[in-house]
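assembly run, all chains below
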Amino acid sequence: MRLVVARCQVDYAGRLTAHLPMATRVLMIKADGSVLVHSDGGSYKPLNWMSPPCALREGSTEDGRVEWTVTGKTDDTLRILIEEVLHDSSHDLGVDPGLQKDGVEKHLQELLAEHPATLADGLTLVRREFPTAIGPVDLMCRDAEGLSVAVEIKRRGEIDGVEQLTRYLELLNRDPLLTGRGAVRGIFAAQAIKPQARVLAEDRGITCAVVDYDALRGMDDDAEHRLF
Amino acid sequence: MRLVVARCQVDYAGRLTAHLPMATRVLMIKADGSVLVHSDGGSYKPLNWMSPPCALREGSTEDGRVEWTVTGKTDDTLRILIEEVLHDSSHDLGVDPGLQKDGVEKHLQELLAEHPATLADGLTLVRREFPTAIGPVDLMCRDAEGLSVAVEIKRRGEIDGVEQLTRYLELLNRDPLLTGRGAVRGIFAAQAIKPQARVLAEDRGITCAVVDYDALRGMDDDAEHRLF
DNA sequence: TAGTCCATATCGCAA
DNA sequence: TTGCGATGTGGACTA
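ok done. output:
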């Protein structure tokens, strides 16, 4: 890992072209050759970068200024014209042991599988990841009247999720084993549902359910076993 | 901008919980208080981070080790336990003049709005960003016969774009003002269209148009004004 | 390898 | 501010 602070001008040409005027920035050069150009603001996304695999070549322009050329796998190139180097240091970091995560969509599905009644009164689980020809339905349930209910779970409820559930319902409603007592209903469950997605869902007779993740976790006796 | 290289352990708790075991990493602390934890690989995304606005507090644990606590706007917290500092430097970067981009979807839409006939002979523009209940249609046009044509523009033509255009067409074809002379047609325009998207589009009677960005830019008399 | 879906997404624009 | 779509999306998983 090499860290450089320099007054520089950056030009990228690849899927798009982008230009950064001359200013002081941080250049991070990773062991795999990838380069990140950061300013003193924004968020974690660099102003400009080159993803690995790529190669950095240090050269100079006709008028003797330092110029880095980073070449990517395709035609991507990142040109960094350096006017003044304010800091330059290299560090051996070794291999990173990696990140452990908890609390993504899979976990939400586990919690709802344990507590399906929070989605609709009297709802009981038939099975998780119920298989269909076009992919698994997150939860297949049965309501108080014994009718089949397909549940699609998303962390954020957007229009794509409604389309997905619609495709599932279309398929499920061709199966006489499921539709014996009546058509399969759909429930679209998410921590937040966008207005457009809600309109589309309701237009298609799909019920929307906003899920309170913290409340669900509170209901789960084993919640503490998942913490680090 | 402060750059620290240190052996550290990182724990994040917010929308999810995440844990990084003790290892040597780069910590980037920006002027707005945001913190990035980078390893010597991966891509531009840090292993862990805290987005602005946030506040960093340097403290120490009961056993005297250095611990940073970064607190975000909501309940987000990032705890960095530091075992050994290998490098620590601060730099004044000033305000960045910002990034200039060229070649994104918006620009493509401008060019096609100026030259709709490249999509189909005799096509003329009615208006850009034509409003519907579920969002704006990129270009609403009229063909040589006076029939309405909805154009959806994507940089990359994938299946989502076809779904989007299908929804627009469904809605537009309920409007007697547009369908007076016949049903509204759809054109799916992109720099490259994936095979699956093409199949779906043609199955729905949507015309696919592959757009040559460079050729379009060449037709545009004012193109040079957009260059740097 | 190509398709699909998630993300602590981030970012920019507009209502 | 919130909603919404684009992103040089990236990354993981699957068939």
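The longest helix of chain A spans residues 159-172.

Residues 42-45, 101, 103-105, 135, 154-156, 160, 164 of chain A lie near DNA strand C (CB under 10 Å from a C1').

not gonna interpret more than that til we talk
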